[in-house]
Protein 1
Amino acid sequence: MSLHRRELMKRAGIVSAGIAGANRLQASEVAAQDVELTVWDTLNTPPRSDIADSIVAEFAEAHEGVTAEHRGWALEELVSTLPRSVESNQGPDVAQVNNGEALMGPMIRGGQIISLQPYVEQYGWDQLFPAGLAARNMYSADGTVFGEGELWGVSAESEIVGFYYNRTIFSEHGLEVPTTFAEFETLNATLREHGVEPIAFGTLDKWQAIHIFGAIQGTYTTREYLDNIIYRRNDASFEDPSMLDAATKLVEWNDNGFFMEGFEGINGDDAVPLFTAGMSAMLMQGSWAAGQVGEGLGDDAGFFLMPPHEAGGTVLHVGGVGIPYSVTTNAEDPELAVELIASFVSESANAKFVEAGILPAGEIPADLVTEGTLSGDLYGNWNTALAADAIGHYLDWATPDFYDVLTANLQSLLGGQIDPQAFVTALQEVYAASFE
Amino acid sequence: MATPVTGAESGSAPARLRHLEPWLYLLPGLLIFTAFMAIPTAGTIILSLTDWNGISWNTAIFNGLANYQRALESVQFRTAFWNNLKLIPFFVLLPALIGLIPAAIVHQLRLRGGRWFQAGLFLPYIMPGVLIGVVWAWILNPIFGPVNKVLKQLGWASPPTWLGDFIWALPTVGFIGAWAAYGFCYVVFLAGLQKIPNDQYEAARIDGAGMWQEFTGVTLPGLRGEIAVVLSINLINALRAFDVIKTTTDGGPGTETQVMALYMINSAFGANQAGYGAAIAVLLSVITLVGSMLILRFAGERNG
Amino acid sequence: MVRKILAYTLLLLGAAIAILPFVVTILASLKTAPELAKGIFSLPNEAQWQNYEKAWTQGHFGRFFGNSIIVAVGVVVPSIFLSTLTGYAFARFRFRGSNIAFTYLLLGLVIPLQAMVVPLYYVLREIGLLDSLVGLILPQIAMSLSFGTLLMRQGFLSVPNDVMEASIVDGANSWQSLWQVMFPLSRPMVGTIGLMFFIWTWNEFMLPLVVNVNPKYHTLPVGLMYFQDRWTANIPLIAAGATIIFLPIIAIFLIFQRQLIEGITQGAVKG
């Protein structure tokens, strides 16, 4: 019996699941007759859609009488459709539920997803991420307090924002990957002097403004402060030296020409081909762009993270966990649905993500980190940041409507319409109002 | 008034039934309209009086007119409303003009190959809304777009970044909106022109009228009704403008191109405030209705 | 002569600006992503025709194409018929409640779909039309009616009075005079609204996503969703997909164009 189960789980890729109670096993096997499972997520384009398709197909194959269907959505569509479908009892069994107050909190309070806390030990989910990251999928049992209490979702992917660089351009100008913030500034200044565009990105479609600001802010801040802001604890305020320093530095960098000329008129996506065409020395982008960068530049591209002010110091990097998978209250057989989620973070699933150049949930095996390659740079930096619990936050999570507020004010700051102090004040006003 | 009164009819139907006659024509349309437009709209009005977050019904708590009060007091809504007003010349008048001039030229001069121009000029209207913004953002891209490349070659060292520029963003969005809308005006005008009897032009020509006199004397009066329709539809689209702005600037830079429809959608779906979003939608609809009724009244009813 | 040259120049310029974005789209659909950055009008090294094949399969266009046609026909034909009836009622008859009914129908023009789409979902759920093509068709007929009524009324109003009166003198009842005289005379308007209804329905992106959770019932524009994920958009595929979507509309326009331009000139001369 036990062997049979082990075999099943192995085939489903859940080797790391640990010891499971016999009760659960029986329940699952009895219910496993003719169950249809549906999974909705945002893995809607290759290679992600292929990975999710295969994980789900393998799961169904390994469970007799179970059919499973995967459906990839665009994020906005998923966010608006999911709660409505679950309320109408037409929702999927498993779905990606956007972190925090965007979706997870309201869905918990609406009784639309179930707590995964009872399964944490069984599947070893407390081992996947360091505390700082794990908290993002947590809420109190009543869904009112974000960032602590029970686990409500499990992320299959991770993401981190940093700087891709063109090795050829770097060596042509005698430059090396910076190890301190000051070195990074010198590097940018040198490139500008030599007539090379330093950092490419685009703020026309807004979101990268948050990333460049967050990257700089992460060098001035602490884990505690950032967690307080995002989890809305301890009267945290945007009127903080780290915010003001970062805003001042951002303006200074812009004035010094560290950003590609015309960045405010191009979309974030459009900056990637500019970088791979050799039109800039660096590209500020997330780990998710590695595939596209690799396609264009191969291993002539490298990746580094924002360096600290003092060698060896800590920086909190923009990034986090992918959108977590949760089990909805529409699930006919919740135990089975939980097991399906486990198969998204299994070793075999991790291997699939890594093979496609995507950061999986948790650490990447050392033998996959090859020096001097793009993926090696990316994986090495990720493992380091993960071990140091140095992955910060996306600042737009502070309140549900903060994305618009933050991006508009960053554009105004970069466009010289407001000064750093006015910027910080404007953010704090909205943040404070959200507590009323 | 072009409307024949019912009394002028042949009088075969009994008088009692006769006043039901128009309602028989209206009935099927009214039924389907009520089911799929009016009832959902009433639903939106009800939602606008609640605190609903759009996610779970247990948050749909009645809160009276609080959402309306909040909208009218909010800086964002006022900014958005003001930007909508600033876009009116671009979204209402400009496309009507760009649509009218070629339609009149083709018609009055009886140009050879007019059909091909007609096809070409209408094209923008068929482009899916989500694509328009994407394509124009490439064309105006300050780094690899053709517009700034040409301008630089002409000697303008650093032309604006257009959509990303605090001064230029709104006019640029306005221009793209006009590009997307004039094909509609053009077709309505073309259809209207076909009904102007040829002898009116001939009479004008015998009287020695030139191009311009023909235009002001025959074409414009003949199109009066169409102009009213086009202006009011354009006004409606100007106030509801969404697609083009969402896909080009998303309201930026800063809040330079933030408009009511964008604010409504970001509130309802982005910020989980469906009740508040519904209130903005109702306000937006009322403003639009008043505006378009005014245009129809002032420009429309005197034709024929 | 000078006038004509001037006119042609103006028209050519206008047509160039009108067509430019289409040229850009088609060029983009034949490039690789890195080639995009080299300049909008640069020709691709090698035309990437496989982008179309990829777009077709990845965007499930094969499955969605048939749905798009069924929905377009299902919306356009009934919408023209119903708009003709309502437009005629307001143009021909003066009756108590006419203003109120007209304003009521015009409300449809000012309510943005985004504003009422959520309640609409629940209406469709109550009558069991979720996940069906009918659920896509009926609301779009309702959405078309306001505009159709406005334009058809305008079209009927501008038919010269004597034509209308002549038909009445001939002893035709209102139904006969509508279909025998008024409708044929208003063919340009019919063509216009038909064309608009077709374009709107063909390009409608939001409604299919809300009404139909099951992708079996989606239409073409939804396919574009499969070319961008959370962070990145595959521009060449989007361009190829968009080209597949807009080519049929161009064909339809060329067909309707004859109706618009030639139809009535003959009709008016004879009438």
Protein 2
Amino acid sequence: MEYVIQADQLTKKFGSFTAVNAISFSVKKGEIFGFLGANGAGKTTAMRMLTGLSQPTAGQASVAGYDVRTQPEQIKRHIGYMSQKFSLYEDLTVGENIWFFGNIYGLSRSVIKSKTEQLLQELQIGSVKKQLVASLPLGWKQRLAFALASFHNPEIVFLDEPTGGVDPITRREFWEMIYAAADRGTTIFVTTHYMDEAEYCDRVSIMVDGNIAALDTPSGLKDSFEARSMDEVFVKLARG
Amino acid sequence: MKSFFAFVRKEFYHILRDRRTLLILFGMPVVQIILFGYAVTNEFKGADIGVWDQSKDALSTELITRLEASGHFSLAYTYQSRDQVERAFQDAEIKMAVIIPADFGATYYSGRTADIQLITDGTNPNTANTLVNYASAIVQGFQREQTDNRPLPFQISVDSRMVYNPELLSVFMFVPGVMTLILMLVSAMMTSLTIAREKELGTMELLLVSPLSPMTIILGKVTPYILLSLINTVIILAVSYFVFKVPIVGSLWLLLGLSLVFILMALALGILISTRTTTQQSAMMISLIMLMMPTMLLSGFIFPIESMPVILQYLSNIIPAKYFIIMLKDVMLKGSALTFIWNEMVVLLGMTVFFLLLSWKNFSIRLGG
């Protein structure tokens, strides 16, 4: 099995506070990996280390085959990232946003052009190419943000609570996009607060107080915690 | 390099599509310079005065005519009693009262000292001072003319001439100040705002996770503002030259070079502020309090540094705008070459390098955290 993320005793301390306490896990290629935990459990800190934004205090991790300590620049080229704010430039048009992200990932003009057409067609948003992003409905923005995060064909896409504040139908559609990307071999690393979404993941890890308290497939977790839903698993774990 | 140009182009989209930004960028300089040039002035034209002439003789009448003929004063009211004068000030009818005693002409011609009293409203000391100075000068001139007929034994006549700004036009003072203020505003405040905005919207995270180097992000952010600040410099110089006839004696290139150094310093301050803030609102407040206030108050722009308390004089030494204003005045009005202002230049360059390094270090620390 090919692993695209491997963390070994990964640790981050802020002064005397240990945000991430020696976590170890691996993510397979093409997997949808759910990264769960209550607020303040250390999810964001762990994710910042994996995306090359923050140096670990101790431990090792490799992402897409590169070391997070020594090769963060290489990692940045091979991952995509989408934050909970869908972070697009609202005062730029759809086309300009695509153009800008294509450029900061160093894609050539012809590649950007052909990929733009392809993306607009897939999302069926060709009609709004010249409209400002601010004028788009939330669901469209979200799907565009995901499309941009994977625009440069990254091996892994990190999604930080990508469905916050979005209605259930839009969330469903969004997960269909995630499945399609995973089918093409892209690894998805996703944090979420919605337990129904945890069920959609291939495997789920649950962080509690800086540690990974559980890691298995959703059905495996439900079996071992004798729970009917992921919700129940999460509550049992979070309450200790 | 390609990603850098894409970044700069994106910044220009932001700037050109935001009406408020455009207004601050290009409306503000013109409005400020015109406001300062026309409205905020130390010169007086036709200030309303009131006269209580108790003597009403030929000499007093001529003196009053002379005051009016100067163009600085216009006779608005005549009064008959001290009470009336008092009330006039309370109602703010007049800016200055001239009180001439009953025996004015008689005293003067009998060879003794004839007094007149000038009363001004002390709640506005600058105005009061200027008015009294103007009036005294006119009275002295008047006296000299009178005594030409009957020379007095002792007389010192002062003939002063103000070089570089012979008419003491206050706009000469304000142009360098306004330029400083505008460059500070555009470079420092706008930069800190635009970086804070990316943080607020979450797009900064996206940029940091991308392969863009922090250097590219910063340079891409500030490059448009360097260009716009230089354009602003030219606009301000053009307005002051063509509208207010402020001379530009020195080298235009030296002026632009000076401005560029100051712009870089202000940009560094802007970046520094943005590393400390996460919202546009706090970036704005910090810019206004930490940058604009000292620039206005302690740089010698509005209040002369020589007349400040000693502590503030020392404090003014760490205000970059002070050195910029000194150099601007020297180059613009006196035509000084670089050799005459190298002292100030070294200080400003030093500050620029210092703030650039400091902001760079701060930015890197934020990334590592």
